[in-house]
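Materials and Methods. Structural model of GST N-terminal domain-containing protein. The 303-residue sequence of GST N-terminal domain-containing protein from Stephanodiscus triporus was retrieved and submitted for structure prediction as follows.
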Amino acid sequence: MARSHVNSGQKLNLFGRSQWPKVEVPLDFISPEPRPLTITESTNLGGFFTASTGLALRLATGAFVLGWKVETLFSPEDGTYALQLGPFRIRDSSSVLEQATRPEEVIVLYDNESSPRCKRVREMMNLLDITYECRPCFGPYMYNLLPCIVDPNVDKTILGDENIIEYLLEQYEPPTSSYDPKALWPITFEEFSLATSQMAIMIRGSIGMVQQSTARPDNASMKPLELWAYECSPFVRPVKEKLSTLGLPHTIVSCSRGSKNRDRMVDKVGRFQVPYLVDANTGVEMFEGAEIVKYLEAVYTHH
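The predicted structure was written out as tokens:
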């Protein structure tokens, strides 16, 4: 008689099919204390260095929204975001994006973390301050089809980075007379963008090209996790890579400098810091990139 092989973490349902137990918060989990812009004892220093090098290679593309400007050096403490530097409370914003169409429903990006073409699209999302859902895809066949976006606001599916970038600008760009078009060239200059993106990915070890072997098989069916972040932050990079290698759908709430989402976070949790993770599957909300990576590894893998 053939013997069925079931992983110790699996159970059998009424039809004899294996199913995985519901995800749960680890028993020893304690939400870490937020420590903004701090390299903690849990931080992988080598990883932080390579992520910072990638930021430099891409000229910090995506760190600022389109039309970014310093609004005031002495912002009052009124419950909105401002960067405290000594006696200064620097508030930045973008009046340019206030003139742009905003997507009402979340755009879905089918993505591979190690693809330079996908990276261009993620950076453009940040530049335009667009919140989007990322669905990791693996395998050579899918890799060649990526990136792909589905925009439910206009019922459109677009393939290819050049087509997607052109579409995003056409649909969600502010009036071209309101900003300097040179702000787009690190993304729209295709040869430079692809070459530097590929270098930034390679020095990180091309993480995300394949799915982690210990990822739960049901990760793709999980509710999307929510990550408040922006593409080029070295504090964010390990978290984004871990979400992708585990095959977890996740919504990126873009938080580049000048983004209105910085005010939203202050209103929501009383402070601003990225990365910030909200896990709808367990109810966990937490800061601190290195600790988020440990949490994701504990909850969304099998051993």
